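idk why but the lab printer keeps eating my pages so im just putting this in chat instead. protein + SN-glycerol-1-phosphate:
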Amino acid sequence: MTTVYEYITEARRANRRLFFLLIDPDETDADAVHELVTAATENGVDGFLVGGSLVTREKVARSVRLVKAATDRPVVLFPGAAQHVVPEADAILFLSLLSGRNPDYLVGQHIQAAPVIRDYNLEAIPTAYLLVESGGMTSVEFISATRPLPRSNLDIAVAHALAAQYLGMKLVYLEAGSGARMPVPDEMVEAVSRQCPLPLIVGGGLITAEMAAEKAMAGATVIVAGNHFERKKALKELRDFADSIHAVGQ
Ligand code: 1GP
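predcted complex ->
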């Protein structure tokens, strides 16, 4: 059976791009989740992230079950804290907030989560989570009490990605933050993907198919959108996002 990490690295090897949809566990209307995930699966979404900063374990567990029931694509935990580890997902992004200097989010939560991940036999994907300045205070910035990377300094971003590589991490996630005013700059995606061999995930504030395609073109392997698709009338844009992302590299 292919692991989620192989699914991502295989795409990178083949120069393909993947579109992942972020599902907010705070959405507890089961029909709404079912409708969103079914539409996403039918319209070319390649995988799902489930998580958030201020959610309960019960909501994460319920959300993962609802998503799994509506799709055959990978469902990956995107935890905000150690208590968000639940067994039903296909994998977990084992995120270390490398852009920050808060030991709790660099390694502390991980110690609490590790035995649980082992007991659930979850695939853990060590991921450098790099928060990038995006024009306003984001939830991640506030909750983690860390500062984001400066958006105009490419060398700093590249240095963090290289540190992730040398520390043995497997993915780099460039994050502008959910609902960000400005997404991660294309130049930063390009610089990091050119100078660091790890597959790159980019998300935060992507509200048009063009923006998503730009990140794919700049070198992101996985493009994540969430907020935008929580609005019902955005559902018909799923196909546009998926097509523009998949068109890159073909
Ligand atoms: C947030 O990168 C994701 O962690 C997605 O952000 O909700 O703004 O699409 P949006």
